[in-house]
C-alpha cells in the first residue's frame, strides 16, 4: 500500500514528537510544515488532525496548533492501561495467531534488536507488539493500545539520556516463545513484566 502525503507528514511529525525532537508546547505551523514537505496546507491540516486525535497535538483558537504537554504523572496510568488492554488483546489474539503473524513478530523483534537508533527501536517495538495483538481483530482496542504505546514512548524518550543506545530485549524473545507454545498464562505474565519494566 502506497503512503499518501498525509501519511508521510503524520508519521514524520509523530516520530519527531515521540522522540522529543518536537518538544511539548512546540508550535506546529501549517505554513512551515507545508514548505518543509513541499505540499499544500490540506494534507498538513489532515496530518495535524490525526495528531490531535492521538492526543499529541492541540489546536488553540487564534493561536494555532502545538504539541501537547507531557504530564509526568500520567505514566503510571498509561502503564496500567497498557497492561490491562494488551493482555486483553493477547487473550483474544492468541487463538487466532497464524505462522505468518509469528513470522512478522519475529522479524520485528529481530529488527528491534538490530536497531541502531532509539527511534528505530521504538518503531520496531510498536510493530512487534501490534504483530502479536492484531489478530484479536478488535480495531477500537488496537487503536487505544496504539495511543497508549505512543504516549508511553514519549515518556521514555523524555527520560532517556541523550546518547542512550538501543538494546536487545530478552522479554520479546520470552514472549515470542510463550506465544509459540500457546501458553497464554505465561505470555500474559511476561507481557505484564515487560510493560512495567520498560514503562
TrEMBL record:
It holds the Pfam family GntR. The keyword Oxidoreductase does not apply. One of its GO terms (molecular function) is DNA binding. The keyword Transcription applies. Keywords: DNA-binding, Transcription, Transcription regulation. InterPro entries: GntR_C (IPR011711), TF_FadR/GntR_C (IPR008920), Tscrpt_reg_HTH_GntR (IPR000524), WH-like_DNA-bd_sf (IPR036388), WH_DNA-bd_sf (IPR036390). Residues 3-70 form the HTH gntR-type domain. PANTHER family: TRANSCRIPTIONAL REGULATOR, GNTR FAMILY, TRANSCRIPTIONAL REGULATORY PROTEIN. This is Carbon starvation induced regulator. It comes from Tritonibacter multivorans. The lineage of its organism: Bacteria, Pseudomonadati, Pseudomonadota, Alphaproteobacteria, Rhodobacterales.
Amino acid at each position: 500500500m502506497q503512503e499518501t502525503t498525509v501519511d508521510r507528514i503524520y508519521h514524520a511529525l509523530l516520530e519527531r514528537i515521540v522522540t522529543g525532537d518536537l518538544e511539548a508546547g512546540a508550535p506546529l505551523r501549517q505554513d512551515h510544515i507545508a514548505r518543509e514537505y513541499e505540499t499544500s496546507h490540506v494534507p498538513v491540516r489532515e496530518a495535524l488532525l490525526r495528531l490531535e486525535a492521538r492526543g499529541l497535538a492541540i489546536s488553540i483558537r487564534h493561536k494555532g496548533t502545538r504539541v501537547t504537554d507531557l504530564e509526568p504523572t500520567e505514566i503510571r496510568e498509561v502503564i496500567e492501561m497498557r497492561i490491562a488492554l494488551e493482555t486483553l488483546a493477547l487473550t483474544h489474539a492468541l487463538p487466532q495467531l497464524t505462522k505468518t503473524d509469528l513470522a512478522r513478530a519475529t522479524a520485528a523483534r529481530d529488527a528491534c534488536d538490530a536497531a541502531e537508533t532509539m527511534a528505530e527501536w521504538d518503531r520496531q517495538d510498536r510493530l512487534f507488539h501490534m504483530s502479536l495483538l492484531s489478530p484479536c481483530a478488535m480495531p477500537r482496542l488496537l487503536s487505544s493500545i496504539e495511543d497508549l504505546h505512543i504516549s508511553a514512548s514519549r515518556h521514555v524518550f523524555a527520560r532517556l539520556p541523550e546518547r542512550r543506545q538501543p538494546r536487545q530485549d530478552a522479554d520479546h524473545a520470552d514472549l515470542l516463545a510463550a506465544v509459540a507454545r500457546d501458553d497464554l498464562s505465561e505470555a500474559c505474565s511476561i507481557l505484564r513484566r515487560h510493560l512495567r519494566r520498560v514503562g
